[in-house]
């Protein structure tokens, strides 16, 4: 009789519930985070993607725009993208007293393209294209940049640059409006208008 190897049980991953929203929905979604920020929590943005793929540039575009709005703690911008290789190198871990908001592109249903999938809990980068990376963040915002199809890499490459740029502009503005505390002053509001 041969010995049977016992299969190692993989710990099941808790499936998070995401909701598809427009830019106003991002502001509503982040209202609880804004309250925590007013109580002293700091905010860190982890914007995942690359500048070498049109659809996957959503995260770095949002990151660059958040930097322009004056947010200091942003990982992942057009000049320093945070792609799968960089995620493995940087090993982004939670920090006490800091709320991490993860931003990435995703593919979805045709009627969701141009909207945003938001959820409380970490985001699994690269999950839609078959990568198995550690989850990141406390809150997740994923821009639905194109329709999910049989070849996700090709779909991301063939995504409309105009759509991605408009979505990034809309998302960055909504995030900034949602999280900007009154204590930050109105001088930044004037700066935001100049950026539009």
TrEMBL record:
What domain of life does the native source organism fall in? Bacteria
Query: What SUPFAM superfamilies has UniProt attached to this entry?
Result: HybD-like
Q: Per its record, how is this protein called by name?
A: Sporulation protein YyaC
For this protein, the record's Pfam families field holds: DUF1256
């Amino acid at each position: 009789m041969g010995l049977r190897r016992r299969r190692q049980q993989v710990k099941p991953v808790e499936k998070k519930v995401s909701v598809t929203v427009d830019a106003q929905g991002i502001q509503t979604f982040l209202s609880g985070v804004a309250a925590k920020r007013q109580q002293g929590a700091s905010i860190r943005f982890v914007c995942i993607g690359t500048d070498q793929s049109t659809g996957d540039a959503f995260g770095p575009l949002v990151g660059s725009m958040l930097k322009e709005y004056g947010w200091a703690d942003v990982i992942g911008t057009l000049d320093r993208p945070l792609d799968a290789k960089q995620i493995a190198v940087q090993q982004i871990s939670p920090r006490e007293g800091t709320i991490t908001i993860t931003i990435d592109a995703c593919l979805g249903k045709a009627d969701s393209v141009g909207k945003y999938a938001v959820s409380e809990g970490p985001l699994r980068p690269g999950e839609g294209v078959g990568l198995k990376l550690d989850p990141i963040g406390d809150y997740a915002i994923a821009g639905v940049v194109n329709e999910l199809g049989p070849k996700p890499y090709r779909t991301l490459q063939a995504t409309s640059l105009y759509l991605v740029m408009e979505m990034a502009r809309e998302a960055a503005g909504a995030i900034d409006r949602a999280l900007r505390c009154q204590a930050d002053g109105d001088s930044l509001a004037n700066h935001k208008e100049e950026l539009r």
